[in-house]
Amino acid sequence: MSRFKYNEVYDYLKxxxxxxxxxxxxxxxxxxKASELFGVSRTxxxxxxxxxxxxxxxxxxxxxxxxxxxxSGGQSESAEAPLPQKSLRFDFTSSSADAxxxxxxxxxxxxxxxxxxxxxxxxxxxxQGERELREAIADYIFEKRNVVASPDRIIIGAGVxxxxxxFCALIESRGTVSFPDKSFEQGAALxxxxxxxxxxxxxxxxxxxxxxxxxxxWGDVMPNKRRRELVRHSAxxxxxxxxxxxxxxxxxxxxxxxxLHALAGGKNVIYxxxxxxxxxxxxxxxxxxxxxxxxxxxxxxxxxxxxTASKTEQLALCSFIRDGHLKAQIRKTRRFYTxxxxxxxxxxxxxxPEAEIEISENALQIIIKAPFKRDxxxxxxxxxxxxxxxxxxxxxxxxxxxxxxxxxxxxxAAEALKxxxxx
Length: 423
Prior knowledge:
The protein is built from 15 helices and 13 strands. With 423 residues, it is of the alpha/beta class. It is globular and about 60 Å long. The model is unreliable at 76-87 (pLDDT under 50).
């Protein structure tokens, strides 16, 4: 097949879907496989997939791939997409938010104001992200994390994964990348897809991916001494560090910690941030601060990329930040979620008197070590979604997060968890 451009990949797949050649529920080739089939770069395929998803033709299933969601007229109404999601009464992961943590009316006003900017909405968003939002982010991260970066070094995207795809496309040589542990599944899969050799806790990797405020699913926070050691070592071996500053705003039980970017002077650190955790998971706006060298490489190749974040949400978020509401939201959310965590931990202590109950360093996770006589596989099939660390010496270790569970359901949720462990 001859070489395809981005829009040709999009049009080809769209036609195959609308004409029923690719039916609802069909899994699309991986980005790596599709790039081989079409004879284009992975970035080209990724952008085409993003656009198809935005237009409702396909959807992404985490840790699985892309599937066709569009149903053509010739398909049976009974056709269903694969991998139906199990209906969970209590989700003890951190994939959702509590509605009480967010002022929907306030955000709605900013969205309405953005929608009134007719002249700006009739054009596509800037590839790198709206300039005024990048300026607001530059001010925000300098004040909050002492990250010094001009708007020209900031790239906006719909989620960290899309930004990591851009980063991978800018790296000419494929080497080794290291993650803290295997809980970083999606990031590891993306780097593998781009041809990198993935390792875990490998300090001499070419690229070291860390999330200092949430090092593992246990909610461990990287101490200052370790941060300085990492910055010094990465400079000595000339490696790049990707600092995913996930949950740094929620640190409550520990002293303020400096960003790796600030410690390194930004010389070899890529800084990642996201607003989904602070606002709502559905507001898919993240950002990446490149080094000066990679920013120049990005500008040379900007024609290869497209903006994935909603222009309307970018305009709304810019005003939201400049008016001081993001700071207020951080304070509100931190108090709200840490209070919930402590309340549920106390409740579990009463329900599971023989268990060890511990709150993580970032005050968002609860670690439970309890007597356990059931089969681990049977426990995983239970309707309660948790992270299982393993069973050893008759005790199970699990990590839970209660951010998405309403406080009025705490009693029932604790009972369900108790039953899942003891039965």
